[in-house]
Amino acid sequence: MSSQLLSILLLASLLSLAVAHRGPKPKDKIRVMVEGIVYCQSCSQSGWSLTGAKGLPSAKVSITCRDHKNRPANYNVGTTDGNGYFLATVDVTDIKDFYKHDPEQACSVRLLASPDVNCNLFTNINNGLSGASIRDEGKRVYGPAYDTLLYATGPLAFRPAYCVPSHW
Fold first, then answer.
1. pTM of the prediction?
2. Topology of 26-159 in CATH?
3. Less Cβ crowding at N or C end of the chain, within 10 Å?
4. Under 8 Å between Cβ of 142 and 25
5. What are all long-range contacts of 93-97, with beta carbons under 8 Å and residues at least 24 apart?
6. Alpha-carbon distance values, 76 to 22, 65, 91, 107, 112 (Å)
C-alpha cells in the first residue's frame, strides 16, 4: 500500500511541475497590438460583401480601449500600408486597468478616414463604424518588462461615393 501511495505522490508532483512549466508567467504589464485590413468595397457589390474589394492604402483606423470603470482610457490611430494592412499599438499598461481585465472586451477598432476621394464612404462591415471587436490570435511575445499581445480585427471597408450605373 505504501508503494501505491508513493506512486500517486510522485505522479502528482510530476503533474504539478508540468503545469508550472507551460511557459513564462504572464506579467501584470502588457502592450496590446491590433492588426487588420481596410478595403475599398467594389462598385459591383453592395451590402456586406467584400468580393472584388481592394486594400486601401493610407486609410486610418482608431483603436480605443476602456478602463476598469468602462471609460475610454487608451486611444491610438493606425495607418494602413500599401496593401490596406495596419498594425497599431496601445500603450503599455497594467492588465488590471482594462475593462474586465480583458483587452478583448475592452478594446475596439473604428474606421477613421480614407485618403481616397473616390472611396471614402464609411460602411459598417464587421462593425467598422460602431466598433469592431478584437480577437486573440494566440500570438504573444514575452519580454523582460512586459508581454506583447497581438490581436486581430476586421476586415473593415469604405465604399465608393459614386459608382457608374451598370444598367441604364
1. 0.78
2. Immunoglobulin-like (2.60.40)
3. C
4. no
5. 93/29, 93/30, 93/31, 94/28, 94/29, 94/30, 95/26, 95/28, 95/29, 95/30, 96/28, 96/68, 97/67, 97/68, 97/73
6. 33, 9, 8, 11, 11
Amino acid at position 3, single letter? S
One-letter amino acid for residue 148 of the chain: T
